[in-house]
Design brief:
14% strand; 3-stranded parallel β-sheet; TIM Barrel; alpha/beta; 9 helices; hydrolase; manganese ion binding; protein-tyrosine-phosphatase; Caps_polysacc_synth_CpsB/CapC
Length: 249
């Protein structure tokens, strides 16, 4: 090494820009302002959608929570919010195809809706996004999935990598695989945003090719700030090789 080499500065690495154009459709987000724990205002929603457009998305299917205890949304509330959001985007001249479905919380009230034949908001055709609590396994989990299928719905299990009970219960995980329940993982899980165990479990699901959908689960700008670190993940290329359904929605 010469004397001058000591003083040479190493060129900083230019981080790769996030490109999700290959995914085309984000089917899990919380972008209708004021209806759940997602976007709080029309201005915030428009900013978030503009950023998602910059990442290459051409269509968004936003999915407000429907939870009997906390977010008592109805299809009417959600669709009215969607129309207001579309108007806001039009006024701001932001071109984005946007639809709305819901992220249903699995509990007894949801099971009653299914058993009564109540019409559910779907991601596409008969696909319904569902979630559970993160710590304890719902006693009726498999029963609810069975009831949904008997009533013509295909469940999409939202962010299964975040459920501690599923990480610990290999028998349940195997049962869900056997029943071919669709898994949707959050892109943020691969960045370590939630925790190291969540990241490891998400990576396993990718390696085992058990993932059918990817979503941002975008709630606010903090989510997208972290999402922009995804290109640093060794799984950034791996997820492009998955047989996903996003671009068929």
């Amino acid at each position: 090494m010469g004397l001058l080499d000591i003083f040479k500065k190493k060129k900083p690495e230019i981080p790769e820009e996030l490109d999700l154009s290959w995914l085309q459709v984000d089917m899990h987000s919380h972008l209708i302002p004021g209806v759940d724990d997602g976007s709080k205002s029309m201005g915030e929603s428009i900013q978030l959608i503009t950023r998602l457009k910059d990442y290459g998305f051409t269509k968004l299917i936003t999915t407000p929570h429907i939870m009997s205890e906390f977010y008592k949304n109805t299809p009417e509330i959600i669709n009215l919010g969607l129309e207001d959001l579309k108007l806001g985007l039009k006024i701001q001249d932001v071109e984005m195809e946007i639809e709305a479905a819901a992220e249903y919380y699995l509990d007894e009230i949801f099971l009653e809706k299914v058993q009564k034949g109540e019409k559910l908001l779907t991601i596409h055709e008969n696909l319904v996004l569902v979630e559970t609590g993160f710590i304890n396994k719902p006693q009726m989990l498999l029963e609810i999935f069975f009831a949904m299928e008997m009533n013509g719905y295909k469940p999409i299990f939202a962010h299964p990598e975040r459920y501690q009970y599923l990480i610990q219960d290999k028998k349940l995980l195997s049962d869900l695989f056997d029943r071919e329940i669709y898994f949707q993982i959050n892109l943020l899980s691969l960045t370590g945003f939630y925790s190291k165990p969540v990241k490891v479990f998400a990576e396993m699901l990718v390696d085992e090719k058990r993932v059918k959908f990817l979503g941002t689960d975008c709630h606010n700008h903090r989510y997208l700030d972290m999402l922009e670190t995804l290109p640093a993940s060794k799984y950034y290329d791996k997820i492009r090789q998955l047989d996903l359904i996003n671009n068929k929605l």
